[in-house]
Specification:
Layout lengths: L2 H14 L3 E3 L11 E3 L1 H20 L4 E3 L8 H7 L1 H4 L1 E6 L6 E3 H27 L5 H7 L1 H22 L3 H10 L16 E4 L3 E4 L7 E4 L5 H5 L2 H7 L6 E10 L14 E11 L4 H17 L8 E5 L9 E9 L2 E12 L1 H10 L5 E3 L4 E3 L2 E8 H12 E5 L5 E5 L10 E5 L6 H12 L5 E3 L5 H11 L3 E5 L1 H6 L1 E6 L5 E5 L3 H9 L1 H5 L5
Parallel strand pairs: 3-9, 19-20, 19-21
Antiparallel strand pairs: 1-2, 4-5, 4-6, 7-8, 9-10, 10-16, 11-12, 12-13, 13-16, 14-15, 17-18, 21-22, 22-23
């Protein structure tokens, strides 16, 4: 199965089993907008809770916030979004498709990296245990040629983006002979800048409505509330403010399912530090955020750090945690050292002091900020993509299983009576009523027990309990594990202790500090 086929299967599975639906589907849908179904909303809420507990509950110096979507328009002038929140777009004249110019070049560079990795793989196969990758990279002519090409293109792209030289960006695409993925031609328009903010009107037209924006990020709501939180919470530097909320971007090139949408959710934390301490905390949060992802049990090889070649105007250091999606390594989370740019700009534009008096140094200063920003929808997609499996079983049967981390699973536990008589349904419901106070449980008595197991595998339910006639005799049930399909007989009165070790969030949070 190719990666494209895998991705199509995942998208189809999400719809069939109530994870994600195209928004407004009965009206033929709305491009790049999606609704989360009954299982999707549970998974989404569990991801939010796991992030919130790891970020806020596990840190004494981090508190939460829920700022408004509508904010004063001057905020977006101060942040630079009104003047500089643009994407460089280019159209192919034959396919009429529009692309981000920088993304076309990044995909071109990714193909060069693939060529280099293939050469390295050949070298490993040829030389075996004696293979020295560092020496191979430094001496192999094919690798050196491809790496030199990549370095040249990357440097030219960075310079063009930094100088906002759209003509140079287009020329680089032409020089690299990049073709449209749809038409296969290289008939490109000029590159143009497109502002990504949605605007609307506040107040009635008769009263003289003013233009405001749907927020393109949640961070600014934290910055303008910095002093409110600091003073009301008596917070001392260093401290953080965390927030989960909706953001909106008028993405022209929205694609890859829920990876890039016009309405999405962010989980962000802004950590305020003393100037000069920012790089220490930057490295700390790089490590801590990767640990959070790894605590869910996903292979380390699925993640990598990517340091930014071109820094944003507000940053003095930035990196992404990238995840290996079915369409390649892409940004999942960003960690940025934003300096004092945001608070200083809001101080300048609002005329209000945005300073912190440090009792330890007896001085007043504008704090520096370390930002961790993760896309909730992208995290959702990474969980789904890493959990989806199609397995061949004995006898030629196939099962689709979603190996979602148990702490995030939409339904934690399913309870089945083996048959719909002899008092088994009543006993199964009695067991479920007790356990549902701790876990999201599902009761099912329709179809054969095998079909019920398959339905639970498909939505990622970690455990199934089956009540049968032996349960009536000795108060034991069959407990089935989703991933191994192993079934064990356990007493009913031990279920709570057994499940607690597997499902209680505390045991997952402990892994982050390890």
């Amino acid at each position: 199965m190719t990666q494209d086929e895998l991705f199509r299967n995942i998208i189809a599975h999400c719809k069939e089993y109530g994870f994600i639906f195209p928004s407004s589907e009965v009206y033929d849908g709305l491009s790049a907008v999606y609704d989360y179904g009954q299982n999707g909303v549970e998974l989404k809420n569990n991801i939010k809770r796991y992030w919130w507990d790891a970020m806020v509950r596990m840190h004494d110096n981090i508190v939460g916030l829920d700022s408004a979507i509508f904010m004063h328009p001057r905020i977006w002038e101060a942040s630079g979004h009104v003047g500089a929140f643009n994407d460089p777009l280019i159209d192919n004249k034959d396919s009429k498709k529009r692309y981000r110019a920088d993304v076309l070049l990044e995909e071109f560079l990714a193909k060069i990296d693939e060529k280099i990795n293939k050469e390295i793989a050949k070298g490993k196969k040829r030389f075996g245990e004696s293979f020295d990758e560092q020496q191979f990279r430094a001496t192999n002519p094919n690798v050196l040629r491809e790496q030199a090409k990549a370095d040249t293109v990357r440097q030219q792209m960075i310079e063009a983006l930094k100088n906002n030289d759209l003509a140079a960006l287009r020329q680089l695409i032409i020089d690299c002979e990049i073709a449209c993925p749809v038409s296969g031609t290289k008939n490109w328009t000029e590159v143009r800048q497109f502002n990504l903010m949605f605007s609307t009107q506040l107040g009635s037209v008769n009263d003289g409505a003013s233009q405001i924006y749907l927020r393109p990020e949640t961070a600014q709501g934290i910055f303008v509330n910095f002093l409110n939180v600091q003073k009301s919470g008596r917070m001392k530097i260093p401290f953080g403010i965390a927030q989960i909320g909706k953001a909106f971007r008028n993405e022209i090139v929205a694609r890859q399912f829920i990876f890039r949408m016009r309405e999405f959710e962010q989980m962000e934390m802004q950590f305020f530090v003393r100037p000069g301490d920012e790089m220490k905390w930057y490295e700390y949060w790089k490590k801590m955020r990767l640990n959070w992802h790894l605590s869910l049990g996903t292979d380390r090889e699925k993640y990598r750090y990517h340091d930014h070649d071109k820094l944003a105007h507000y940053a003095n250091a930035a990196c992404d945690i990238e995840f290996d999606f079915p369409f390649g390594f892409k940004e999942l989370e960003g960690i940025h050292s934003r300096t004092d740019f945001d608070l200083s700009r809001h101080e300048s534009f609002s005329g209000k002091k945005m300073r912190y008096f440090d009792p330890e140094t007896n001085e007043s200063y504008v704090p520096y900020v370390i930002e961790t920003s993760i896309g909730l929808d992208r995290t959702f997609l990474s969980v789904i993509a890493s959990g989806y499996r199609e397995e061949q079983l004995e006898g030629g049967e196939t099962r689709v299983v979603m190996s979602i981390p148990a702490v995030l699973a939409p339904v934690k536990l399913a309870v089945f009576p083996l048959i719909k008589k002899d008092g088994l349904p009543e006993l199964a419901e009695e067991i479920m009523k007790d356990l549902r106070l701790d876990y999201n449980c599902l009761y099912d008595e329709k179809d054969s027990i095998g079909k019920r197991y398959r339905r639970m595998d498909a939505i990622g339910t970690p455990f199934c309990i089956t009540v049968d006639h032996q349960t009536l005799e000795d108060r034991t049930v069959t407990l089935r594990d989703r991933d191994t399909m192993v079934q064990v007989r356990v007493p009913v009165n031990t279920l709570r202790d057994i499940l607690d070790r597997k499902l209680n969030i505390r045991y997952w949070l402990e892994k982050i500090e390890q």
